[in-house]
Structures are given as structure tokens and as C-alpha cells.
Design a protein that fits this description.
heterodimer, A: about 110 residues, Immunoglobulin-like, seven-stranded mixed beta sheet, four-stranded antiparallel beta sheet, 11 strands, B: about 110 residues, mainly beta, six-stranded mixed beta sheet, 12 strands, globular
Chain lengths: ~110, ~110
């Protein structure tokens, strides 16, 4: 049963620390998304990739966030330095071109 | 630019009664439209999708949605609500050739006995 895998599922960190979230997309999917979900803002698109190339990262705070796809089986989202306002659930999703996206279970990040 | 408006932030129904969750979209292109469901503390699961084939789309768990271009709507319905349907529902539009998914604000469905 193919699924998107995100690690870690939960992360508690202190303000100022670096946070790295990882995502393994479904094999064969060429599009990967990173979303952030908060009560106040709902689901926000942070970045998305097509064939490992970033197509749009306009939703991401550039000074502290970075997203990469080192290879087709791994996408990463880093926050450095982290701040309390970054506390949220971060979702990764993958899909094929013009088709639906399949979501991972999310990483719940708490920055204290 | 594409956008999605979910007309109700909360909907409450009794078990066994019909469900209607409303969604209007704005799109410069022929859109692809989706409904996703999110149960508490879970990820998002695809309910159904419209991609310019039949305008009435059937999904999982008895849900269906009808694409109405003249009304720019894609409302989600179910004839009879079940307690397990209580969740948050998101209407989503795919932006043209970029396949960028734009989410609505969500509708929280409550189902009462």
C-alpha cells in the first residue's frame, strides 16, 4: 500500500534550534508539496517541486525556511532558526502531474 | 488566479439526514477540483475528484459532488450522514498546468445522534 511517509511525527524544540522534517514521496510521483496547517491560517502552501526542481516557494519565509529534494525519494523542509510562531502541523504530499495529491500523516512541530 | 470559497465554516446535521457542503471556485482555466477530508489529528484523504469528465462525481463513503460551470460550484453531498463523517472537509482547486493545489478554508461537519 503506497503512502507518503513523514518523519518525525512529532517534534518539540527550543526556539533558535534547527528543525529538519523529512518526507518520502510515493515512488513514481513527480510532484511534491509542503503545506503548513494552523488554526489561524488553515492550510498554506509553502513550496512545491516538479521532478525535484522547485517550482514555487513563494509561501515560505525565505530567511529561515528552506526546502530541497536531494533525490527522488526524499524531500526535506528545514527551519533555522526556529521560532514559536513556526509551531504547526507540516504536511508533505506527492502526486502525478495534473492528478490528485496524496498526503502524509504530518509532522506536528512545537517550538517553545 | 484560482481560488476556492467554502461558504460554511461549520455545518451540523443529525445522523441519517442529508449533508450539503458548499464550495465555489474561481478559475481562469478548466479546473480540476477535489474534496479532501481530515479527521481529527489525521492527514488528509481524497474523497473525490473532478477532472473534466462526468460532471457528477462519486467518491468514497457515499459522497458525491456535482460540477456546475454556470454556477462555478462544486458542492459536496451525501444522502445520509453517519457519525463517522464528522470531520473537516476541504474543497481544492488545481491551478492550471502547474498542478498547484489551492485549498479552501475548510468546513467542519458535526453529526449528532
Amino acid at each position: 500500500d503506497a503512502r507518503v511517509t513523514q518523519t518525525p511525527r512529532h517534534k518539540v524544540t527550543e526556539m533558535g534550534q534547527e528543525v529538519t522534517m523529512r518526507c518520502q514521496p510515493i515512488l513514481g510521483h513527480n510532484t511534491v508539496f509542503w503545506y503548513r496547517q494552523t488554526m489561524m491560517q488553515g492550510l498554506e502552501l509553502l513550496a512545491y517541486f516538479r521532478n525535484r526542481a522547485p517550482l514555487d516557494d513563494s509561501g515560505m519565509p525565505k530567511d529561515r525556511f528552506s526546502a530541497e529534494m536531494p533525490d527522488a525519494t526524499l524531500a526535506t523542509l528545514k527551519i533555522q532558526p526556529s521560532e514559536p510562531r513556526d509551531s504547526a502541523v507540516y504536511f508533505c504530499a506527492s502526486g502525478e502531474f495534473l492528478a490528485e495529491a496524496f498526503f502524509g500523516q504530518g509532522t506536528r512541530l512545537t517550538v517553545v | 488566479a484560482q481560488s476556492v470559497t467554502q461558504l460554511d465554516s461549520h455545518v451540523s446535521v443529525s445522523e441519517g439526514t442529508p449533508v450539503l457542503l458548499r464550495c465555489n471556485y474561481s478559475s481562469s482555466y478548466s479546473p480540476s477540483l477535489f474534496w479532501y477530508v481530515q479527521h481529527p489529528n489525521k492527514g488528509l484523504q481524497l474523497l473525490l475528484k473532478y477532472t473534466s469528465a462526468a460532471t457528477l462525481v462519486k467518491g468514497i463513503n457515499g459522497f458525491e459532488a456535482e460540477f456546475k460551470k454556470s454556477e462555478t460550484s462544486f458542492h459536496l453531498t451525501k444522502p445520509s450522514a453517519h457519525m463517522s463523517d464528522a470531520a473537516e472537509y476541504f474543497c481544492v482547486v488545481s491551478q492550471g498546468g502547474y498542478n498547484k493545489l489551492i485549498f479552501g478554508a475548510g468546513t467542519r461537519l458535526a453529526v449528532h445522534p
